[in-house]
Amino acid sequence: MTNESIPLRVGIVGTSWWADAMYLPAFAAHSGASVVGLCGRTAATAKALADTWDVPCFSVDSDDFLDPERLDAVVVATSTDSHEELTMTALDRGLHVLCEKPLAPDLAAADRMARRAAETGAITLVPFTYRYMPTNQFVKRLVDTGYVGAPFHLNMRYFTGYARDHDYNWRFDQALAGSGVLGDLGSHWLHVARWLLGEITHIGCVSNSFYQRGPRPDSTPYEQNEDSALMTVRFANGAHGSLQVCAASWEGTEFNQTHHLDLHGADGTIYAVNDWSNLQQVSGVRADQPGPAQVLEIPNDIWNGARRDRVHDTYRDVFRAGGAMVGDWVDAVRAGQPIEPDLAEGAMVQHLIELATQSAAGDGRLLDARR
Predict the structure, then answer these.
(1) What proportion of the chain, given as a percentage, has pLDDT over 90?
(2) What is the CATH number of the domain that holds 241?
């Protein structure tokens, strides 16, 4: 797209709280894009959301909705089992695609999606949101500028509690989601780990379902996915790591969610914590300095004007006023330039999820992840 005076025409498939909280505000804040249509499963929900955001049309027919005469790009924000069909249709019709993670229920589907994107030349994005948060952006800068030197080991932990209610949730339904927290939360950590330290060559996993979930709405049986997992990884650079994700945790904070990162290397150590309430902090100590680690001030350019007091305000500002992720994708589509993380990265993460699931189904041993 080269005409800078014409906004990118965007359609969103999926009318859940996530479309309302993430995508519609982000597009509304970007002068180069306009959401021209919403597509959902029920007309009432789609209409209500369209009315709230002054979106001119809505649909419940995705095939009719994905019309290149009306759209330039589409956001696929639906359950994982529908990603492939929607994305492939959009790509075949010449649309640019932002598709939610995990990319697909299995690697074969994710690979098909990535290949088709490459063949069509579409500008694609998989929204691994946490890489854009200031703490992780600062950790990335520290790593890239040699703060830890040669990395030794990375430990990342993601604790939250949305599995504790016992209710049916499609994310724990294997037929719909493919995997549980490995796909929902683990996909984030696998991407961030690769972004920080490079290729993962081996992966192992142990997992569990600590809570038994309720029946499907139609009472049909289903295989329940894991609500907790611990992955071990080796990187091509010789470092190793542990990536823990759990949706059965009680953190007791405002959002009942916390993120923790420890990274040790030859020249230093980095600690990062985000309690998703009021604390988003990076600390470090160089190998030639006495401890303990001291708080390292996150530079102003990384904050990019975002509020710093409450984490959720930071989150809103990063993705709305700051234009991270969604805005970056709009700019890339308009410029005709590729952006990362794209569908190829989403497929690589899916490869690792599949190996982790395979390892957890066995004895947790490390499996070769090189492709």
Answers:
(1) 96
(2) 3.30.360.10
What token pair was written down for 83?
A: 């990603």
- 364 and 358 Cβ atoms separated by less than 8 Å: no
* Three-class SS state of 308: coil
Pair 27, 38 in one domain: yes
168, 41: one domain:
no
Tokens linked to 81 = 């089992």
Contacts with 120 (C-beta within 8 Å, 6 or more apart), sequence order: 91, 92, 94
Residue 5 pLDDT grade (very low, low, confident, very high; cuts 50, 70, 90): confident
Is 221 a member of any domain? yes
Collapse the DSSP code of 297 into the 3-class scheme (helix H, G, I; strand E, B; otherwise coil) and give the result.
Answer: coil
pLDDT tens string 292-328: 999 999 999 999 999 999 999 999 999 999 999 999 9
The total of structural domains in the chain comes to 2
Are residue 196 and residue 293 in the same domain, yes or no? yes
- Pair 81, 123 in one domain: yes
* pLDDT tens readout for residues 10-61: 999 999 999 999 999 999 999 999 999 999 999 999 999 999 999 999 999 9
| CA 129 to chain centroid | 5
Tell me the mean pLDDT in the region 88-99. Answer: 98
- Has residue 3 been placed in a domain? no
Q: Is residue 315 part of a domain?
A: no
- Residue 184 DSSP SS3: helix
**Tokens found for residue 355:** 């190996």
State if pTM tops 0.90: yes
Closest alpha carbon to 259 in 249, 273, 270: 273
- Report how far residue 72's alpha carbon sits from residue 77's, in angstroms, rounded to the nearest whole number: 17
Same domain, 334 and 193: no
Give the C-alpha separation, 29 to 364, whole Å: 45
For the segment 246-273, what is each residue's pLDDT rounded down to a tens digit?
999 999 998 999 999 999 999 999 999 9
Same domain, 212 and 281: yes
Written as one string, the DSSP assignment of 42-73 is SHHHHHHHHHHTT-S-EES-HHHH--TTT-SE
